[in-house]
Amino acid sequence: MVQSPSLAAREPVTRQPPTENDISAELERVLSSPHLGASERRRAFLRYVVEESLAGRADRLKGYCVAVAVFGRDETFDPQADPVVRLEARRLRRDLDSYYVGAGSNDPLRISIPKGSYVPHFDWLDGPYPHPVDAVAAITAVPPPEPETAQAVSPVESGTGNRRPYVLAGALLAVAVIVAATVWHFAIGSRTSGPEASLGPAVIVRPFEPMGDGDENRYLAAGISEDLVGNLMRFPSFRLYIPPPALDKAEIADSGRLAREFGIGYVIDGSVRADAATIRVAAQLLDARSGQVLWTGVYDRPLEPEALIGVQSDLAEEIATALGQPYGVVNTDLMAGRPAPAVSHMQSYLCVLRAYAYRRGFTRQEFDPVLTCLEAAVRRDPGFADAWAMLGWLRLDAGRYEFAGSDGLKEAYARAYQAAAQAVALEPDNTLALKALSSITHYMGRFEEAERLARRAVELNPNDPDALAQLGWRLAVRGRFEEGIPVLRHAIERTANPPGWYFHLVAIDLYLNGSADEMLRVAERSAVNGSGISQALIAIAAGETGDADTARQALDAMAASGPLARDPAAYLRRHGATQEIVAALMAGLDKARRIAAAH
């Protein structure tokens, strides 16, 4: 609601559930479509679970029954030893989601198989998903089905799948960055191998130095370096490089040469020292051109042999999060007035960074120039998924914040969806694209789908605090505070300078639980970038504490916030807030007005 990335265009339309005939017709429509990228046995899987559900036998849709009926296993089937049903279900979910993004976007209802179950769900689609623009329609084609023998790769185990860092070897030899992870929400795909695949800053991770004698230091230094590379690869905007073992140590250490000859922008290195009781990791980020140290971090952990691998992994995650997150060290440095290079690709990347800065406060004066910048970026670099994703968010803002006027809300959301769907079609595992599409589908009233997308983004990159904040916000605004608030708080803890909207649902939760003083503190923190909803929350908290002056000032500031001031209840509902939240905040605003008027 609040200045966040997620909301609902309207209250869901009450409608009778799909009938058996409706569902059967949709099943045949999906299975007969050449655009369903499923193998024959996954098609048989889909037919089996739908027909069993329609026959009233949904309770029998367990892994064992599916394995025997669909995959030809016998009565000795053991799902722990043979994961065929689990893996094929994951692929089938991806096949269905790809179909409904593309060819099935106009279907009247949707068949889905929620994660953790083999029982299908059948939901009406309120309106057609918009098709991608003609100019890039060819890029959005669903890839061909994977071979039957393809092995699934767990995103938790492998991050972004088979993506590899670039390698420096003599002259800078860039090995193509490939993204080929098994995904849950969209069709398998790979990062563009053309110029658009390398729009972000070039970062090299030099091997961490072991300090002191002993195998522990050497092994830990190597392990942390490797884990750090793996965690940084979860942030797809970076061009990541590693030096090969054969490269001379002096050449690796010459960051100026790396910048001049190979275009490296940033260097990450560090040291590891372990003794009998403690491990200390020191890391730093340098500007490769000037050698200036931009950031340092020192991490101390107890050295417990039984938990050594976990400590190594945790330290690498912390360093990667500090450096790679949307509001992290590298992106902050790029936005700090550095001159834009002549290369159009980096200009497009800087447009994305400008959009991140805009999304801290969602101010009207920043909106138009950022929108113009992003529109130019996708014309210049039509394969740049990040720019399409941000363009989707800006088009969403045009509707939800009425930046383009109060009419045409549905059209604004359709154009937003079009851009974000294009981003996902380009890079199915791009977390920024998934977050944008999640936000837009939330505002279109498709809350379950929005949550699935948000969870997928977190699954792909659990080190991205913004992905956590998106998920936590989406859960809390739908009234699931017990799930959403811990996720939001975790995102806040992991962000160097959190945007104000991260705090809005935290403040509302405090209000609903009677903690007015703490709510006021959190609401004031949320107002650092300025927003109408922050002022509304400050007024409500001040009303609860009897602070008339603060309530009056906040209400005056809120009055300048356009649609929120005109009709607060409608504004909150537009953002997908539950009726409980809307009623409580409206009562709080009424009380704040009474307190302000009485003094």
Write the topology of this structure.
Blueprint: H1 20-31, H2 40-54, H3 63-71, H4 84-101, E1 109-112, E2 121-124, H5 155-158, E3 166-167, E4 202-205, E5 209-210, H6 215-232, E6 239-242, H7 249-253, H8 255-262, E7 266-274, E8 278-287, E9 293-302, H9 308-324, H10 329-334, H11 344-358, H12 364-380, H13 385-400, H14 409-426, H15 431-443, H16 447-460, H17 465-477, H18 481-493, H19 504-512, H20 516-526, H21 532-545, H22 548-558, H23 563-566, H24 568-574, H25 579-598
Parallel strand pairs: 3-6, 4-6, 4-7, 5-7
Antiparallel strand pairs: 1-2, 7-8, 8-9
Helix pairs in contact: 1-2, 2-3, 2-4, 6-9, 11-12, 11-13, 12-13, 13-14, 13-15, 14-15, 15-16, 16-17, 17-18, 19-20, 19-21, 20-21, 21-22, 21-25, 22-25, 24-25
Poorly predicted segments: 1-14, 127-164, 166-198, 338-344
- The assigned CATH architecture of the domain at 200-334 is 3-Layer(aba) Sandwich
Q: How is the CATH topology of the domain at 200-334 named?
A: Rossmann fold
Shape: globular
How many strand segments? 9
Give the CATH H-level superfamily of the domain at 200-334: TolB, N-terminal domain
Mean pLDDT value:
77
The CATH class of the domain at 200-334 is identified as Alpha Beta
Q: If helices are DSSP runs of H or I spanning 4 or more residues, what is the number of helices?
A: 25
Main sheet overview: 7 strands, mixed
Radius of gyration: 25 Å
Terminal Cα separation, in Å?
A: 30 Å
